[in-house]
Design brief:
By secondary structure, the protein is mostly helical. It is elongated and about 45 Å long. It is about 75% helix and about 0% strand. Helix 2 packs antiparallel against helix 3.
Length: about 70
């Protein structure tokens, strides 16, 4: 039987969301609010939900990948 953990779905959803966010706001990514503050707030919600699971490994992977997307 195939077992899918919520962290795996969260990884895919988060990566797709932030790829879309960067694409939509590419002109404004150099300023603080749309480039750092808004993605940081959204990412902290995702991270809090994953840590409530608790799934520390998925949280670290998502944080590293999203930070690399935002650079």
């Amino acid at each position: 039987p195939l077992r899918l953990q919520p962290g795996e779905i969260a990884k895919a959803a988060t990566l797709l969301y932030f790829a879309s966010y960067v694409n939509r706001h590419s002109e404004k990514m150099s300023s603080f609010v749309p480039g750092v503050l808004i993605p940081g707030a959204i990412l902290s919600v995702f991270a809090a939900l994953l840590l409530a699971e608790p799934d520390f490994g998925s949280t670290v992977v998502i944080l590293l990948v999203v930070f690399s997307q935002l650079m």
